């Protein structure tokens, strides 16, 4: 599947002239912007007869890391190469949904009708039936966690009347945000040769999501949600093992490879990363982790109070599986992961007997939810992080038990700062509050070994 000048011409120009018919007095300006986007697409590599198979394959691999606040580019590789967004498409579907919630055109409790077109979507999906209804918040969670294609269409039809008209709205919004190379043809990311984007464009959308919709961004931190009697896990597996990562979205089709847009916070600094065209979910996630490590490491190198990530442990926990936004085939229910090799974890030699008792209590409380505010090079840095977290959310953390735990991983030692003994709702509220103050936080589910 290649993107040619003809396919872009046939896809973009009808959109441009339709905009001129519906935009009234603003049609000239919108048409000019659209034609400029066509020129930009041509400049990005659509000149001549089109991309060869080898060139298209090479264009799939791309990445970029950006400072979320300043927009400074800290790393880029082929960031303007055209590729397919796959289920990263749903980020724009959600962006427009959040716009509608802010404008009052939708409400979280509102029920939306499910059409036969929505029901017909291929997996991954919630399994909606035509004639039924779906709450807006349930649709949001379905997109964030399960990457449900049927739920994406329900939102598209509720906001645009039809999926095709909604796709036009998506492309217009992309232009408004500065995503000059992106064209949307559907709301889900299911395969379409004319649906194209770049890593740079998706870094723009990721930053816009953070700045324009901070109230709704915590949805992207959800690890799972219950639907139809099942607990549906989030496809973003890296979020559970990378310190400070709290979103955003994975994507996969055969044509796109494995994509990931992600955001993480450390020491009050938030970065946005986009990796396109990974060969597997494991290689994609490891690539993102390495790029973020490198970008975060530049300003913090040499500080023992900066959060660390034990790379060997992180890699040991990751095993190849059937993960992905399987837009073309359902995720196997029978998929069983190999048991990962775990690093040896010991209680830290805490300074006081009282602290040691607290750490022991924390281990015993691992049947409840908790939070982790970082993994540090020294025990003192971990204790400092826990003290700071308590100051920022004292009411929510009043019943939590603190522990700084020493983790041995080969020759490396890190100190994990955790608070346990919480319920899931409180743990997620705490992380939302700490993230709002620029502090990293990961909600830790029960049963996860300390």
Automatic annotation (TrEMBL):
<feature type="region of interest" description="Disordered">
    <location>
        <begin position="316"/>
        <end position="341"/>
    </location>
</feature>
<dbReference type="Pfam" id="PF05036">
    <property type="entry name" value="SPOR"/>
</dbReference>
<dbReference type="GO" id="GO:0009252">
    <property type="term" value="P:peptidoglycan biosynthetic process"/>
</dbReference>
<dbReference type="InterPro" id="IPR018044">
    <property type="entry name" value="Peptidase_S11"/>
</dbReference>
<feature type="binding site">
    <location>
        <position position="249"/>
    </location>
    <ligand>
        <name>substrate</name>
    </ligand>
</feature>
<dbReference type="GO" id="GO:0071555">
    <property type="term" value="P:cell wall organization"/>
</dbReference>
<comment type="similarity">
    <text>Belongs to the peptidase S11 family.</text>
</comment>
<keyword id="KW-0378">Hydrolase</keyword>
<feature type="domain" description="SPOR">
    <location>
        <begin position="366"/>
        <end position="444"/>
    </location>
</feature>
<feature type="active site">
    <location>
        <position position="147"/>
    </location>
</feature>
<dbReference type="GO" id="GO:0006508">
    <property type="term" value="P:proteolysis"/>
</dbReference>
<dbReference type="InterPro" id="IPR001967">
    <property type="entry name" value="Peptidase_S11_N"/>
</dbReference>
<keyword id="KW-0573">Peptidoglycan synthesis</keyword>
<keyword id="KW-0121">Carboxypeptidase</keyword>
<dbReference type="GO" id="GO:0008360">
    <property type="term" value="P:regulation of cell shape"/>
</dbReference>
<protein>
    <submittedName>
        <fullName>D-alanyl-D-alanine carboxypeptidase</fullName>
    </submittedName>
</protein>
<dbReference type="GO" id="GO:0042834">
    <property type="term" value="F:peptidoglycan binding"/>
</dbReference>
<dbReference type="Pfam" id="PF00768">
    <property type="entry name" value="Peptidase_S11"/>
</dbReference>
<keyword id="KW-0133">Cell shape</keyword>
<keyword id="KW-0645">Protease</keyword>
<keyword id="KW-0961">Cell wall biogenesis/degradation</keyword>
<keyword id="KW-0732">Signal</keyword>
<feature type="compositionally biased region" description="Acidic residues">
    <location>
        <begin position="321"/>
        <end position="333"/>
    </location>
</feature>
<dbReference type="InterPro" id="IPR012338">
    <property type="entry name" value="Beta-lactam/transpept-like"/>
</dbReference>
<feature type="domain" description="Peptidase S11 D-alanyl-D-alanine carboxypeptidase A N-terminal">
    <location>
        <begin position="57"/>
        <end position="279"/>
    </location>
</feature>
<feature type="active site" description="Proton acceptor">
    <location>
        <position position="90"/>
    </location>
</feature>
<feature type="active site" description="Acyl-ester intermediate">
    <location>
        <position position="87"/>
    </location>
</feature>
<dbReference type="GO" id="GO:0009002">
    <property type="term" value="F:serine-type D-Ala-D-Ala carboxypeptidase activity"/>
</dbReference>
<dbReference type="InterPro" id="IPR007730">
    <property type="entry name" value="SPOR-like_dom"/>
</dbReference>
């Amino acid at each position: 599947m290649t993107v040619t000048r003809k396919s872009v011409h046939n896809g973009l120009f009808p959109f441009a002239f339709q905009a001129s018919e519906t935009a009234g007095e603003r049609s000239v300006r919108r048409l000019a912007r659209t034609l400029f986007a066509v020129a930009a697409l041509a400049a990005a590599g659509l000149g001549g007869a089109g991309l060869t198979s080898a060139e298209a394959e090479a264009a799939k691999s791309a990445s970029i890391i950006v400072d979320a606040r300043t927009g400074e580019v800290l790393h880029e590789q082929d960031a303007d190469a055209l590729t397919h967004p796959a289920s990263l498409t749903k980020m724009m579907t959600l962006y427009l949904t959040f716009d509608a919630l802010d404008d009052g055109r939708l409400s979280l409790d509102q029920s939306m009708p499910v059409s036969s077109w929505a029901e017909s979507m291929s997996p991954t999906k919630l399994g909606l039936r035509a004639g039924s209804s779906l709450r807006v918040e349930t649709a949001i969670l379905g997109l964030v966690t399960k990457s449900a294609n049927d739920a994406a269409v329900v939102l598209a039809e509720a906001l645009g009347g039809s999926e095709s008209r909604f796709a036009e709205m998506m492309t217009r919004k992309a232009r408004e945000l500065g995503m000059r190379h992106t064209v949307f043809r559907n709301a889900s990311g299911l395969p379409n040769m004319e649906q194209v984007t770049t890593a740079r464009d998706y870094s723009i959308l990721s930053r816009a999501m953070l700045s324009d919709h901070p109230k709704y961004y915590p949805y992207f931190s959800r690890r799972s949600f219950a639907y139809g009697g099942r607990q549906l896990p989030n496809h973003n597996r890296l979020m559970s093992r990378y310190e400070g990562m709290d979103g955003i979205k994975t994507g996969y089709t055969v044509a796109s490879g494995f994509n990931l847009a992600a955001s993480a916070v450390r020491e009050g600094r938030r970065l946005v990363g986009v990796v396109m065209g990974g060969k597997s979910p494991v290689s994609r996630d490891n690539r993102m982790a390495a790029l973020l490590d490198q970008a975060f490491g530049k300003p913090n190198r040499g500080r023992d109070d900066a959060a660390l990530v034990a790379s060997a442990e992180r890699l040991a926990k990751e095993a190849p599986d059937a993960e992905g936004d399987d837009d073309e085939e359902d995720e196997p229910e029978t998929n069983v992961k190999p048991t990962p090799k775990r690093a040896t974890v010991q209680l830290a030699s805490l300074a006081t007997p009282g602290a040691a008792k607290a750490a022991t209590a924390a281990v015993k409380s691992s049947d409840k939810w908790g939070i982790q505010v970082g993994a540090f090079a020294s025990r003192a840095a971990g204790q400092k992080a826990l003290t700071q977290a308590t100051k920022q959310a004292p009411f929510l953390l009043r019943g939590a038990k603190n522990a700084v735990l020493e983790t041995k991983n080969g020759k490396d030692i890190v100190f994990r700062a955790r608070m346990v003994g919480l319920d899931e709702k409180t743990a997620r509220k705490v992380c939302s509050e700490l993230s709002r103050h620029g502090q990293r936080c990961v909600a830790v589910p029960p049963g996860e070994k300390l």
